[in-house]
Design a protein that fits this description.
Layout lengths: L6 E4 L6 E3 L2 H7 L4 H10 L3 H8 L4 H11 L4 H9 L5 E4 L1 H13 L3 E6 L6 H7 L8 E4 H4 L6 H10 L7 E5 L2 H9 L3 E4 L3 H10 L5
Parallel strand pairs: 1-4, 1-6, 4-5, 6-7
Antiparallel strand pairs: 2-3
Helix pairs in contact: 1-2, 4-5, 6-11
Length: 206
């Protein structure tokens, strides 16, 4: 028999928020996909961006990257200046599932997210539902990030969550694998429809 789930933990970017730097840089590079891809793979890379999620300031991030690629100073600075335009919207299907979970009154619901402390206030303004979780751990605030164990352990301790009765939903497989190592059930998010099916397998009633 499936273990009773009491707590549902969500990632945000890629699960709720349709975020992609390409949405902005397509306009900067005038739909020249090769130039845009080169820039995002060699200048404002995911590896560079995730360090802000881990607590590095945007000012420091820009300084480092501009020193490496001075001819791209304008394009580098514009990454965070235009961050809003990289968020296309919300996956309505996920939001519907979240609202059903809240309205059921049967589960605890939290968020564990890799997010810059400086862009988080912008996100909560753009997407007010982010303020309705029972608790949120933001990597930029605690200066720890997924997929490393300490941030998961921080969440479990802060909100007194029993990992064996919790499920974690994330679009990143390494993040899910770490959750499972810590005894948390994991769902590798691919679409709202797939998420609903996986939740049903865990006997989560919406």
């Amino acid at each position: 028999m499936t273990q009773l789930i009491e707590t549902i933990i969500f990632d945000l970017g890629g699960v709720f928020i349709d975020y992609n730097p390409e949405y902005y840089y397509r306009t900067i590079f005038k739909n020249d996909s090769k130039k845009m891809q080169w820039f995002l793979e060699n200048v404002c890379t995911p590896e560079w961006n995730i360090e802000q999620d881990a607590g590095r300031t945007i000012e420091e991030a820009n300084r480092i990257k501009i020193a490496e690629h001075p001819t791209y100073e304008k394009e580098i600075r514009s990454f965070y200046e235009n961050w809003r335009t990289m968020c296309k919207g919300t996956y309505q299907g996920t939001l519907d599932i979240f609202e059903a979970i809240k309205n059921s009154g049967k589960y605890n619901y939290y968020a564990l997210t890799n997010f810059s402390a400086e862009t988080w206030p912008i996100a909560t303004e753009m997407f007010p539902y982010l303020n309705t979780f029972q608790g949120v751990v933001v990597s930029g605030h605690v200066k720890m990030r997924k997929p490393f164990a300490p941030i998961y352990e921080h969440l479990l301790t802060k909100y007194d969550i029993n990992p064996t009765t919790a499920v974690f939903i994330d679009d990143s497989l390494p993040n899910i694998e770490m959750a499972k190592e810590l005894g948390i059930h994991g769902i590798h998010f691919q679409s709202p429809e797939q998420l609903k099916r996986e939740l049903e397998k865990l006997n989560i009633q919406l």
